[in-house]
Amino acid sequence: MSTIVDTFIAPPCHDKIEILYQDEHLVVTNKPSGLLSLSGKNPQNLDSVHHRLVTIFPGCTLVHRLDFGTSGLMVIARNKAINAALCQQFSQRTVVKVYNALLCGHLESDEGIIDAAIAKDPALFPRMSICAINGKPARSHYQVIERLYRQPEDGIPLPLTRVRLTPQTGRTHQLRIHCQQLGHPILGCDLYGGLSYPGSALTPRLMLHASELHFTHPISNERVTVCHDSPF
């Protein structure tokens, strides 16, 4: 059995967290790319969304996470009861999450479904793998927003497709590995081929942003919708 050894050390993140909504029960923030959601075991990985917010909102806890390179919307509970209620919504899949991404290459279809089970493999850590036998069901919807070209510094035109991604399950690295499975990895994705396309090597970040979050407020029972435009 393989032992997982996490040697990742996060570089300093000087970007601030934006607080987009807050009340006495919960907070919705915009996480910058390059910031951990939760502090790591290594003391050098102390800085995180939770580490910063707990100094402002004592006792707050994360309901869900975003990958280190992903920017965008996160909801944080201000007490245990709210955390439990929101976690139930995530597990029952009543929370709608929408992402904006730039994919390498031009997709042929304007929209579609990626249905591919995802499994953990300690030998591949931190990468996940597509595995129909041992994987957990994972399903994502994509919709093309535009097809474009970018001219990077090395002068090679880079074909890209801007897409709206809606995960219908919540597996680790789901959108990143599903886009690779589609044959069009997310630009800037170091784990799943997003830096291997000609012209992509100098991409400054993972081009994935959590742009919409829809959930039911645990106290008022009203539907909450928070949106934040993609920074790329």
Summarize this structure as a short list of keywords or feature phrases:
mainly beta; 3 helices; globular; PsdUridine_synth_RsuA/RluA; PsdUridine_synth_RluA-like_CS; PsdUridine_synth_cat_dom_sf
Word description of this protein:
Pfam families: PseudoU_synth_2. This is RluA family pseudouridine synthase. By secondary structure, the chain is mainly beta. 11% of the residues lie in helices and 33% in strands. The chain is built from 3 helices and 12 strands; from the N terminus they run ββαββαββββββαββ. Strands 1, 2, 3, 4, 5, 6, 9, 10, 11 and 12 form a 10-stranded mixed beta sheet that branches. Strands 7-8 form a two-stranded antiparallel sheet. β9 and β10 (158-167) form a beta hairpin. The protein is globular and about 50 Å long.
- In percent, how much strand structure appears in the residues? 25-35%
| Radius of gyration (Å) | 18 Å
The coarse overall form would be: globular
Q: Helix/strand/pairing class, anyone?
A: mainly beta
Quantity of strands, as a count: 12
> What is the count of DSSP helices, taking H or I runs of 4+ residues?
3
Share of residues in helices? 10-25%
- How far is the N terminus from the C terminus? 41 Å
Uncertain stretches of 5 or more adjacent residues: none
Element-level helix/strand string? EEHEEHEEEEEEHEE
Major sheet = 10 strands, mixed
Overall pLDDT level: 94
Family: Belongs to the pseudouridine synthase RluA family.
InterPro entries: PsdUridine_synth_cat_dom_sf, PsdUridine_synth_RluA-like_CS, PsdUridine_synth_RsuA/RluA, RluA_PseudoU_synthase
Protein name: RluA family pseudouridine synthase
Organism: Kluyvera intermedia (Enterobacter intermedius)
